[in-house]
């Protein structure tokens, strides 16, 4: 850890932690979506939309703090990238839930639950990692595991696509379901982007 002579704005750590905790909330709503009836899905979508708005507020707060801080805990570009990537995760999760409701999907294809389980695990790991930015400790295992989970998500996604294109689904249903599983895959990619940004920060600060 480099020795610094100047004080740093430390509120960023709390804001990153709050943003990550909100993502855990979003992942739990995704889990609730599995097996929910249409009426419950509408209610879940409303709660997810509120969580996404809370995520936007957290991101804007970080950007505001960044623009008003003379000294930051690490590079401004990395702070911006980390906040943006965390925000992307919530955006993708909210989009997936919204699509399920808008497309009036009766039953999600087998394998989506595996996608969501990967996202839920990644959300918990990310929330646990954010407080460690203060000391840059115990982060290596985090980004290694997130990369492993993203590889797992890729495999699940490919299997889902093969399932959707096996000829058993109506063409219009394929289009709808593919868009949903693609968005969930983008959420998994966004978790990896967060982990890669954290790794970049840790390397710079070491």
Automatic annotation (TrEMBL):
It comes from the Bacteria. It holds the Pfam family PhoU_div. InterPro entries: PhoU-like_sf (IPR038078), Put_Phosphate_transp_reg (IPR018445), UPF0111_domain (IPR052912). Belongs to the UPF0111 family. This is DUF47 domain-containing protein. It comes from Streptomyces fildesensis.
